[in-house]
């Protein structure tokens, strides 16, 4: 399955599955009780961005300087249409980037009309083919994988993708349902990371984790009630780290399917982390533990 296209328009303030995003919770640690672990409180809900426009089902939308430039540099990414302002086109030329197809020079307002009011496009907009997704078996050839259990906020997932690209994650595994589209807002937040970390969409996460274990992958779930800190947990490659949604954490069946659970202990006065911050911390710990990837 390839990157999923932008979903159809839904009511303002709804999440990717049509529900309002779950609020953050407070407490200590990272995991099943939210990224604050044991502790009450729900915080304020923040509505997700509305989808922009109506696009054919097989089109991925990219905008912003980093997202579009990385796509232009990626030989696997087929760009169907490229819009650029005069200044943006000049910057592409100055950086020696060959734009294929040739950009259509437009005024900034023409791109504004295609996007959400608060979208920062920096004069670049592209309609692309989605990137191909690896099979689970192919993804398991990587030394480090990331599994997302119903994390629905595209800003958070985009930030996670960016961190995953920086730490050489081989693939991000998630379900086709209850996950944001690998396009638009997510792509902008990923800042080009989508071109380096493929998404592997699976129909059932628990079965996918069982398959990974059968392929020799160690599956570690991040959970506030884990028996040990991730720093003190024995990790080996190939490794898959599993993160759950803010407010909910890992689902029960996901927790039961992991080889082991681990928590992240925080020493400071602020004892909760946003999921994207928790992801980069966990990935950094994992990368240092299992070593640098083979080049």
From TrEMBL:
Alphabetical UniProt keywords: Methyltransferase, Transferase
Q: Record's superkingdom? A: Bacteria
Amino acid composition bias (Low complexity), ranges on this chain: 11-27
- InterPro entries, alphabetized: Alpha/beta_knot_MTases, Ribosomal_eL30-like_sf, rRNA_MeTrfase_TrmH, SpoU_MeTrfase, SpoU_subst-bd, tRNA_m1G_MTases_N
GO terms of biological process kind: methylation
**What are the recorded GO MF terms, alphabetically?**
methyltransferase activity
Q: Which SMART domains match?
A: SpoU_sub_bind
Region of interest (Disordered), ranges: 1-51
Pfam short name (any one): SpoU_methylase
Q: SUPFAM superfamilies given for it?
A: alpha/beta knot (SSF75217), L30e-like (SSF55315)
Q: Which intervals hold domain RNA 2-O ribose methyltransferase substrate binding?
A: 61-134
- Name the PANTHER family for this protein: 23S RRNA (GUANOSINE-2'-O-)-METHYLTRANSFERASE RLMB
Query: What is the official name of this protein in its record?
Result: RNA methyltransferase
């Amino acid at each position: 399955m390839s990157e999923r296209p932008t979903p159809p328009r839904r009511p303002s303030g709804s999440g990717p599955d049509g529900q309002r995003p779950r609020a953050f919770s407070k407490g200590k640690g990272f995991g099943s009780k939210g990224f604050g672990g044991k502790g009450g409180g729900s915080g304020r809900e923040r509505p997700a961005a509305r989808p922009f426009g109506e696009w054919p089902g097989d089109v991925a939308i990219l905008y912003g300087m980093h997202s579009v430039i990385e796509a232009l540099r990626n030989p696997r990414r087929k760009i169907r249409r490229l819009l650029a302002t005069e200044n943006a086109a000049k910057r592409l030329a100055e950086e020696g980037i060959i734009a294929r197809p040739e950009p259509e020079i437009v005024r900034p307002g023409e791109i504004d009309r295609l996007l959400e009011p608060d979208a920062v496009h920096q004069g670049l907009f592209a309609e692309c083919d989605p990137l191909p997704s690896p099979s689970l078996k192919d993804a398991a050839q990587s030394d480090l994988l990331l599994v997302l259990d119903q994390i629905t906020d595209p800003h958070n997932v985009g930030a996670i993708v960016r961190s995953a690209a920086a730490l050489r994650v081989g693939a991000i595994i998630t379900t086709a349902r209850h996950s944001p589209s690998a396009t638009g807002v997510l792509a902008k937040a990923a800042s080009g990371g989508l071109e380096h970390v493929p998404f592997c969409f699976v129909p059932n996460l628990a079965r996918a984790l069982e398959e990974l274990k059968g392929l020799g992958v160690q599956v570690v779930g991040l959970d506030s009630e884990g028996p040990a800190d991730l720093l003190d947990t024995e990790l080996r490659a190939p490794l898959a780290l599993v993160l759950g949604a803010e407010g909910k954490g890992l689902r029960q069946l996901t927790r039961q399917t992991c080889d082991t659970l681990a928590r992240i202990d925080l020493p400071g006065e602020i004892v909760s982390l946003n999921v994207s911050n928790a992801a980069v911390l966990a990935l950094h710990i994992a990368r240092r533990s299992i070593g640098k990837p083979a080049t």
